[in-house]
């Protein structure tokens, strides 16, 4: 046993310890009989101490220890319900004196560094900074809020007295937490952490940290033997002296290093009271973190736990974390790894992501192992925790690796435990093995033992055993396994000890490494003795020179987390409810440290230091209180009071924010059917609020409450969006809440008074009682809003009556379209039709058609048989409704051309005919009990003439222009869709679907009841006219009557027009009716009349070629080639998850692989004839096979103002096609590989990271196949993947350039971009639509944005902007043939010109 005092690392907090008190016996360490935790031991008074508590005691100083470990049992300090300690005295945790020879300096390899003082405010050069001082105490508004427990535009009021207050608050900032400008003035440090949770962050709470002290071993060197062997093997005694006290001191990495058994490593942990922060690491970028706390404020309070200059306002510390902020080399005293430590780390850090021991270094590394790291290189980076309320801060490192990796220590211990030596229990077997390691190291260092250790002899096998684990650990401390001479002439494998000659660099390295191993193993063994003292009672222990003491209470006390400082108690069961664990973490505290005072403090401190996230903190605070109530516990009155107080100040939760959006009409079920996201303009939100207020006014019974709800919702949304504009608008409107009924009463006018009379009365009231002018104005404003009167609004703005207001707009500017419900997509479509010159000129003359004349028009059966649209006969009903539709459309075109107002309101009948198909009408009438014979539809065609049998192609609907579903499926208001019914056709190629292209190909011969017959022509030859359908002369039996249908209640989201369809159905229905309305039924013209304007503008011709894909089929000539020509009106581009350009998307359509007859086949498409208008559909609706739900892809698709279609022509250069195909094939392969490696859900890199992290930290379950080699392979695989990903990206860029180079001189077939349709929203089921149109032909660089009633000029950059991260994405691109002159965007005529012409 040791005969002298312990050697412990030096400290920087004061003089060495004095042993004025004796050890505490285990029997009296814990008191009995009380439910209170034991008090803290006595500490020096009036002294601000840091964390450098561990001392190097001189030889003459007795060791400061609580009890004698060799003669007493031990258990880890813990909270127990026992009585207070009696008369026993406990020694100081941090002794007040220090007479050690270490006082004053800390030697570092020949250098001397002055020790830092724990309370020194100037000891850090270049550290910290200063800022504006926070408020230093209670302000006049603290605790004096008055009012009616409501939140108004001028601030807050509450009848509940504040229950919690903390210093550093600012009234203006708390009231305007949402305002970035206010937050910037104060520059708060962001979210904070309370001490109990900081203690968990410092080190794994399941692991224990120990301070380590060393007693110089009383071991005598072995007498030298005068033999040839020893004379050649041993160095002289002078070159191998026993380790000195200095050697033992530096065996511990740092004075503030604490040993962790579970990691077999060290944690550098230091706390200090100083208003000057430690110097920051060079790599630390403050701009990437929240600001540091105000240093001037921190100087004023030494500690939050002691007496504070402004009274005891803070319950505890409030720390802020800055990861990897401090360089360990800059500490006082500094810490840096020596050469051999750095090599050990670099060789094995891959094993766990943190440094640990591992394989030997390379020869080049060995040459530099004795050198200290270069000064310019950073050392270990430490996390910094700074209290914003006082001068305390704390720094902590990750695990500094031990010499032997914890994995091997655990493996060896498990092996010894599972296979105990004869005569020993498992615990004794483990200790015996490790003590043998200690003995071997001690013999080498202190006794200069150099004899090799034969690993296969019985003694070695019995005491240690031999395995790969044992070999790795011996190699870690320098032993070398090699063959040596055995007894007689035999050869045996032995472990040869390393040289420890202090005159050589290698010897010094080996000596330092073995000493560190000896200290770590000694600490491990000492802890094992404590944990299994009962099982080791009969075991005769090895002399132990290493002592350990738990550091948990010490660092808990240092940072203010000790139970005596913040009491611990078993929390109510409701507070351990799993879902609120995130709430505790967000507030920076733990459930076990709960008290109502601490919870209140945590919430208030977070709001003070991170005002931007005040709603988040209130959500978590309120969630905890509500959970207590919901799960049967009664929240303390103080918590309830604070909730009421915060509600009175206008605080809201995340739930409140969601409800606010719904209250204003946002969401899939709301009247706006628009998702409230960051892309929604502020003006739109303000209009939504006004609409919500108007809706409230229309409910006489709940008017007041609904209006308050709308106003509160508007305020919440304004604050959540940090919008000063919206917040100001709310404040101005909320000072005096007035509803219309009260407004009419205040002004003493009837509700039906005209605007002119109302203004007269208002002026009289103001003139009579000017002191009440604000009241009169508020009343007039309410009436203006409920009437939506532009005249009254303008009067309120200017003070002058404008008369009957006509909203002025620039004469040359296009006119907008007012919404008639959820018709934003219809408005976009109608505006698009108006920009098409030929279509507009064809329809415009029909504006004067009399509706009555249309209704009286008669058609004979022969007339009906003369024309087919969409491959079928049309009915009288369809003809009549189509003519009405075109008549209303022509009238709308006239208004768009001549109207002086900024926007035009389409006729409701136009919207109904556009949105409701003839089949919808039929279904509705059937629901109402049927229809008469005059309302003939598809089912009544037999009454109009001879029956006809439709071919298969006519029995299923083809896809729409925007990617729609089968007609019988549930329609969604989306920009594309999920499924369609495949057509059947005589052509074998028609039923083939590509797995890569959209699920809604419009080239499969699917008939459409809403478009021209040319769109559904399915023949094996190229035909541009409608396909003639064969009629049967045989009479077709009359189908049985339809069964009675149940009546359906339409939802509020269904407009007044009936069923709501998606954009695609709307476009199909419009074009279908235009084509029918332009047909001639007078027998004087054929089908190729004006009705062909639709085909002429929108339809082109393609050639499809289906051929074998596999080489075996090609060689065997067993696969036939199918070719056919067909018409098309759009080109689909499937938009998945990854961004690409428009050429990439089209390439996937023109050259694809499809499944046909059970085999993979190539589908090649080429363009035979191109239309003047080229419509490219970006099909964004995708299907998630995991959730079985449709979703909208937000991927960015790059496009430019010109596109060249030469490469897709059937007549394109064959050689270039072949070359481009090879490049495209390689490009697709590279992209698919990159997609596989980087896909968010299946990323190989992320999978490797997760696997590596799991395997490195796995301790509970042994995994036999996991070793250092596997971990190293996983790390190297990560590097290989990163290199491969980078190389793939370079290759893709190069291949893309090569592909464009092939077609660089093919630009004869040029198309210019004319229109871009936008869908804004994250859901495919709903959203908002608008579109951009280019001012052609006059101003091609000018773009207009058509957003319902608003039309504005926008920059070209907005149209072509990268939409990554936005929910507003293009879903339809329209190009016009260069020089075709089909687009005339702005068609405006001055009405006065008509008057002048008429006069002339």
TrEMBL record:
<feature type="compositionally biased region" description="Low complexity">
    <location>
        <begin position="346"/>
        <end position="364"/>
    </location>
</feature>
<dbReference type="GO" id="GO:0061136">
    <property type="term" value="P:regulation of proteasomal protein catabolic process"/>
</dbReference>
<keyword id="KW-0378">Hydrolase</keyword>
<keyword id="KW-0833">Ubl conjugation pathway</keyword>
<feature type="region of interest" description="Disordered">
    <location>
        <begin position="918"/>
        <end position="1045"/>
    </location>
</feature>
<dbReference type="GO" id="GO:0070628">
    <property type="term" value="F:proteasome binding"/>
</dbReference>
<keyword id="KW-0645">Protease</keyword>
<dbReference type="InterPro" id="IPR028889">
    <property type="entry name" value="USP"/>
</dbReference>
<feature type="compositionally biased region" description="Basic and acidic residues">
    <location>
        <begin position="956"/>
        <end position="970"/>
    </location>
</feature>
<feature type="coiled-coil region">
    <location>
        <begin position="1271"/>
        <end position="1298"/>
    </location>
</feature>
<feature type="coiled-coil region">
    <location>
        <begin position="1209"/>
        <end position="1240"/>
    </location>
</feature>
<dbReference type="InterPro" id="IPR044635">
    <property type="entry name" value="UBP14-like"/>
</dbReference>
<dbReference type="InterPro" id="IPR018200">
    <property type="entry name" value="USP_CS"/>
</dbReference>
<feature type="domain" description="USP">
    <location>
        <begin position="815"/>
        <end position="1378"/>
    </location>
</feature>
<dbReference type="Pfam" id="PF00443">
    <property type="entry name" value="UCH"/>
</dbReference>
<feature type="compositionally biased region" description="Polar residues">
    <location>
        <begin position="227"/>
        <end position="237"/>
    </location>
</feature>
<feature type="region of interest" description="Disordered">
    <location>
        <begin position="89"/>
        <end position="173"/>
    </location>
</feature>
<feature type="compositionally biased region" description="Acidic residues">
    <location>
        <begin position="367"/>
        <end position="377"/>
    </location>
</feature>
<dbReference type="InterPro" id="IPR038765">
    <property type="entry name" value="Papain-like_cys_pep_sf"/>
</dbReference>
<keyword id="KW-0788">Thiol protease</keyword>
<dbReference type="InterPro" id="IPR001394">
    <property type="entry name" value="Peptidase_C19_UCH"/>
</dbReference>
<dbReference type="GO" id="GO:0043161">
    <property type="term" value="P:proteasome-mediated ubiquitin-dependent protein catabolic process"/>
</dbReference>
<feature type="region of interest" description="Disordered">
    <location>
        <begin position="210"/>
        <end position="247"/>
    </location>
</feature>
<keyword id="KW-0175">Coiled coil</keyword>
<dbReference type="GO" id="GO:0004843">
    <property type="term" value="F:cysteine-type deubiquitinase activity"/>
</dbReference>
<feature type="region of interest" description="Disordered">
    <location>
        <begin position="337"/>
        <end position="377"/>
    </location>
</feature>
<dbReference type="InterPro" id="IPR025305">
    <property type="entry name" value="UCH_repeat_domain"/>
</dbReference>
<feature type="region of interest" description="Disordered">
    <location>
        <begin position="1"/>
        <end position="72"/>
    </location>
</feature>
<feature type="compositionally biased region" description="Polar residues">
    <location>
        <begin position="44"/>
        <end position="60"/>
    </location>
</feature>
<feature type="compositionally biased region" description="Low complexity">
    <location>
        <begin position="1013"/>
        <end position="1024"/>
    </location>
</feature>
<dbReference type="Pfam" id="PF13446">
    <property type="entry name" value="RPT"/>
</dbReference>
<feature type="compositionally biased region" description="Low complexity">
    <location>
        <begin position="976"/>
        <end position="988"/>
    </location>
</feature>
<dbReference type="GO" id="GO:0016579">
    <property type="term" value="P:protein deubiquitination"/>
</dbReference>
<protein>
    <recommendedName>
        <fullName>ubiquitinyl hydrolase 1</fullName>
        <ecNumber>3.4.19.12</ecNumber>
    </recommendedName>
</protein>
<feature type="compositionally biased region" description="Pro residues">
    <location>
        <begin position="1"/>
        <end position="18"/>
    </location>
</feature>
